[in-house]
Amino acid sequence: MPQATLLQAIHDTLHEEMARDPRVLVMGEDVGREGGVFRVTEGLIDRFGPDRVIDTPLNEGGIVGMAIGMALNGLRPVVEIEFADFIYPAFDQIVSELAKLRYRSAGLFTAPVVVRAPSGGGIKGGAYHSQSPEAYFIHTAGLTVAMPSTPADAKGLLASAVRGPDPVLLFEPKALYRTVKGEVPEGEHLVPFGKGRIVRPGEDLTLVAWGAMVPVASMAADLAAAEGVRIEVIDPRTLWPLDIALIEESVNRTGRAVVLHEAPRTCGFGAEVSALIQERCFLRLKAPVGRVTGYDTPFPYALEKSYLPDPEKTACAVRAAMEF
Amino acid sequence: MNGLSMIAAMLPDGTVDPANDPGLSDGDLLAVHGKMTLLRALDEKGIALQRSGRIGFYVPSTGQEACAVGAGFRLREGDWLFPSYRDHGLALTRGYPLSTLVAQLFGNRSDATRGRQMPNHWCDRNIHLVSVSSPVATQLPHAVGTAYASKLRGEPVAAITTFGDGGTSTGDFHAAMNFAGVFRTPTVFLCENNQYAISVHVTRQTASKSLAVKAQAYGIPGIRVDGNDVLAVCKVVGDALALARSGGGPTLIEAVTYRMGPHSTSDDPTVYRSEEEVEQWRKGDPIRRYAAFLKKRGLLDDEAEDTAQAEAKEAVRQAVSDAEISPPVPVESLFEDVYEEMPRHLAEQRDGLLSGKG
After folding, report:
1. CB of B93 within 8 A of CB of B82?
2. Residue B47's pLDDT band (boundaries 50, 70, 90)?
3. Partner residue facing A105 (CB), from B123, B138, B153
4. What is the pLDDT of residues A42-87, one digit of tens each?
5. Residue A143 in contact with residue A242, Cβ under 8 Å?
6. CA end-to-end span of chain B, whole Å?
7. Across the strands, what pairs with B124?
8. In chain B, what residues touch A142 (CB-CB under 8 Å)?
9. Residue A163 pLDDT more than 80?
10. Catalytic residue among A11, A129, A189, A261
11. Would the pLDDT of B1 be above 70?
12. Catalytic: which of B96, B259, B289, B290?
């Protein structure tokens, strides 16, 4: 299988899906000639033209709103929000309109819009180029929220989103765009929503992480292995609907769980994962479910490294669970 | 086209200004009257149903029938409708079955949308009436995207979206007008300036000299029309739709009208406007004006007018009695249509509710 970066995998998948289906188009700020600020859509305009690779005016609510109208009239728009930090102007369109259209119309109208948004820190982006807003959207019924951590999953989740019947928010860990390289299956490769992946097996503790925290979790697992602790790392891939069965089975085996995410702690998705684990695995748990997260502060610029979870902080939480 | 002067069609002597004549046949002229009469009867019944506790809520369009019917009369098969919650008249005129419309008010098994929304949140797939939501003006960008899709496929259809004067203050109004201008989508923006956004007068929405004049900033035509003159509305909306369908791009139309009733059954307009003001507008009641016009043309007399009103009331009464007897929506439907396929967590929550264990 060919190797590709996560960014390349997303680019190639957009290209494949647009070539496969003339209804698919991409739209957003700077996605045309510029190829997007991260160059994810580079060159697509040359192949598919400006009517399907649409540079839009600068208004995220307008972009998502327009995409909803396109989708309910037969197109398959893939929206790029330049940074996930700029998704909030589209919050009303996503939460009030996109998420609820199927329900409120009893299925008479649907809008299978894909919203791609680079998220997370690690690029010295400060308060407005680093956020991880997934929890806001997981809280909204009707949305599918996914975050890949490998090029293969990026392809498979994006292809499933473009072809699927429901709106999908795909948060792309920008820190991994060019730093992670991996094999990407050629041809059709679909990763179903709601199916997680065991990144590495282990017997002593289940570590749940997504996006750019998956490599951090793996490094923490290496640190723990040096101390004789075997960690099972699970990447849910789809945050919602969550593959709780996979996590439940794992924690029932290991008896310990830690959840790791970049977003702030309070009401972060880790809180939900932790609650689900305790509801389902209470009698098997040997320690409270731990959380390693961003802090309840705005995302900092100068102190980014202090803010972000890292392998050492994660190892501390692992130790606390092991020694409880 | 400057967005400031007001276009009118019906002249006091019973003739039509040739420049603004929509060119309706005698039969169509009477059909327009029939739809306006039906709409008035429907709104009166809707209020009565809410007051007697048979439905939970209602949003009347009384006083704005000329906007809804005049515009709706020019819609064709294939066009898309993105109305506000006050614009059932637009859909009714386009062909939204009265029975389907009334069933939505009851939110029971007869409701095609399974009781998912409050009354007045209409939806019909057959006439491309896209599900109405409550947030104001969120539908405007949708009408741009849908029109873009039709244009991309080369279909000669238009999307119309309607909203009130309050809607012009929203970010979505700006976004939609701007996007429509940039992409030249076949979208008709019909603003029914009924003077009030619930209790706040239009002079508190904008310092602009008119609402139509805002179109200039987006590089699209802006037209101001007497919204209580059904033929003038029919003419300008018809022209805008034709322009859109032929590739000429979007138009903003401001129809100047008046909401003679409350914002909704939860509103008491006496606290923010005087009876004198309402009375002044009542003199320009669009149905009375139009009936007087038809009478001068010799197309209508008092007897035919009474008959039309009686038939409208009977049609509404029949639709209400048909819909009201339907049973409630099944409890398990609460969890359906969130996604195409029900995910595990919703199935668990459904089973919990049905088993009585929460």
Report:
1. no
2. very high
3. B123
4. 999 999 999 999 999 999 999 999 999 999 999 999 999 999 999 9
5. no
6. 60
7. B129
8. 338-339
9. yes
10. A129
11. no
12. B259
Angle at A100 between CA A259 and CA A74, to 5 degrees: 110
Identify residue A114 by its one-letter amino acid code. V
pLDDT confidence of residue A35: 97
Q: Do the beta carbons of residue B42 and residue B92 sit within 8 Å?
A: yes
A129 is catalytic: yes
Q: Which long-range contacts (CB under 8 A, 24 or more apart) does B333-340 make?
A: B333/B114, B336/B114, B337/A102, B337/A103, B337/A106, B337/A107, B337/B114, B337/B116, B338/A102, B338/A103, B338/A141, B338/A142, B339/A102, B339/A142, B339/A144, B339/A165, B339/A166, B339/A241, B340/A102, B340/A107, B340/A110, B340/A165, B340/A166
Under an 8 A CB cutoff, do B174 and A59 touch?
A: yes
**CB-CB neighbors (< 8 A) of B153 in chain A:** 74
Are residues A65 and B145, on separate chains, in Cβ contact within 8 Å? yes
Q: Across the interface, do B145 and A61 touch by the CB < 8 Å criterion?
A: no
Query: Which member of B76, B204, B272, B345 is catalytic?
Result: B272
For residues A194-208, give the mean pLDDT.
98
Rounded average pLDDT over B162-171:
98
Query: What pLDDT digit, counting tens, does each position of B258-302 carry?
Result: 999 999 999 999 999 999 999 999 999 999 999 999 999 999 999
Provide the pLDDT confidence category of residue B124 given band limits of 50, 70 and 90: very high
Is the pLDDT assigned to residue B2 strictly greater than 80? Answer: no
Q: What is this model's ipTM?
A: 0.97
Q: Do A96 and B339 touch (CB under 8 A)?
A: no
CB neighbourhood size of A6 (10 A): 29
- B178 contacts A244? CB cut-off 8 A: no
- Residue range A190-201: mean pLDDT, rounded: 98
Find, among B143, B134, B11, the residue nearest to B82 by Cα: B143
Min Cα–Cα distance to chain B from A244, Å? 9
> Can you list the domains of chain A with their CATH numbers?
3-183 (3.40.50.970), 197-323 (3.40.50.920)
Q: Which amino acid is at A14?
A: L
| Residues B100-104, mean pLDDT to the nearest whole number | 97
Helix (H, G, I), strand (E, B) or coil at A257: strand
What's the mean pLDDT in B69-83?
A: 98
Query: CA-CA distance, A283 to A82, in Å (whole number)?
Result: 45
Instruction: State the smallest CA–CA distance between residue A213 and chain B in angstroms.
Output: 25
Q: Are residues B140 and B189 in contact, defined by beta-carbon separation less than 8 angstroms?
A: yes
Nearest to A285 by CA among A314, A324, A318, A229: A324
Longest Cα separation, chain B? 71
pTM of the model: 0.98
Q: How far does the CA of residue B309 sit from the closest CA of chain A (Å)?
A: 32
